[in-house]
Hints:
By secondary structure, chain A is an all-alpha fold.
Amino acid sequence: MNKLPKKIWVFFRTVILTGISFIIMYPVIYMVSCAFRESTDMNDPSVMWLPKHFTLDVMKDTIKAMDFGNTLKNTLFLNVGCAVVQVISCAVTGYGFARFDFRGKRFLSAIVIMMILVPPQVISLPLYTQFMNFGIGSFRINLIDNMLTMYLPAITANGLKAGLMILIFRQFFSGLPRELEDAAYIDGCSPLRTFTAVILPNALPAVLTVFLFSVVIYWNDCYTSTVFFRNTKTLTLVLENLDSQLKKNLFGSADVQISPREQIVWKEAGCLLSITPLLVMYVCLQKHFTEGIERSGLVM
Amino acid sequence: MKEKIKIPHSGRKSLYGYGFISLWLVGTVIFFLIPLVKSLIYSFSEVSIDSGKTVTEWVGFEKYIKVLTEDEKYTEYLTDMLVETLWKTPLIIIFSMFIAVVLNQNFRGRTLARAVFFLPVIIVTGSVYKVISNDINTSVVGDAEKFSTVFSTNLIGEFLEFIGVYGISDKVNTLISAVADNIFGIVWNSGIQITLFLAALQGIPVSVREAATLDGATAWEYFWKITVPYIKPFILANVIFTVIDTFTNPLNTVMERIGTMRNQWAFGEASAMAWIYFIIIMVIIGIISSFSRRDFNE
């Protein structure tokens, strides 16, 4: 290859990658920059990135308004818990589809595809009435505002984006060599034991990828939680109502008029707080994630 | 015990298969199929809630007609949504393919670059994204972006007029400004697509790459003759994924409209809206996959 075109390309590539990286990182940098400045700095045109009045008060106010400790505990218990449970149930289901032949498999696979295509909004109404009045025969309980509304679908591999996760696992498990299982069967392992002792350890990259995906989906879920919960608070739900809560705390009433520009500092602080746990997890798992998804042979 | 011996090996294997999917099967009947059928019934009914129980009264296509003819907001949002998907999807696909090709090359800082490009995946789905895009529009830099948009629009328009092309420059202007205004949205919604394309690119065998280099293929030829055929199936997967993703995003206007109707306890109308929407998605996905099937048969 000629040297000159190559040099031009390298230059071009660096410019493009840096530029787009900036677009991607921009909101994150902006969040950090806003969360630690006084709200008056927002109206000061000379302040771009570095705040003139550095302060921790905004963060403190926001932590208090979000009731951060409790909310985080809720989120971990509800959203991350569901995410973990769903990864396991989807892996089991995906394995069943990948390795065994049974009657009606084509039809059942079609249902999995349907699960991907049907927007959650289509079934959320009947689900709501179903949960309001859940049970068989005369034994009925109201599950609205109960964590089971999230946990039950997750346990049975029917939670958020479950169809996609089953499909990913199915693809991944079909790609694994059959010799793995044959050896285990000859040694007298039952299929379940083969799955837990032989298959799962080999599927670690796929499991991690889907785990990250699942945690992100549950963490950021707003739609399903607003449908089924009225009092339970997760980080995402709290962030939605942060505005009025902050106004109540800072100015005594939710109806105070304050320019949207000056509110930005608190909102960005709220965003920063609610994605920091995710960011930390991403940074820790990042290597496995970017490698895992490439190895998982993810073809739809 | 006796019975167990009678079952042949294949039969036992299929039993195990049912065993593995049984949990999902039970769940899918309760949490997916029954609600799905119920919502279809709701959409043909007048729904009222009487002491905790839902009462439905069959009204035929009335709700569908009402939603499509009387609810102006719904049809307006629906067309906006369709138009947006129509032009945004190709842009997302081209952009993510380009980025995947670049990220697949060897250079220093590649790991860092990849980590940055996957970052949107973890933020974009939530309300954080809503806050971010709102704030950026109200802050100073929003104006700076608008400034650069105007700048590039005029530049291209003037260039076209300079080389003697008049008339289209207006259309080009609107197109370019639309792209520039949405670059944030496009970049931020391409995370998964880039990942998928990268996975495809990693699937190109080293031997193919070596053979092409030995035969003296230029980068341009390599892209069209090797890369594109290899990632073709992924283009389809990505188009379908992008369409589904934009359509089922709870933040989009149609979804919000359906949510509002539900909050007003207008279950019949909300279900009819959701079903019209779902049928449109199915038709679009059907068209896309029929295109690709023709493609594969060639």
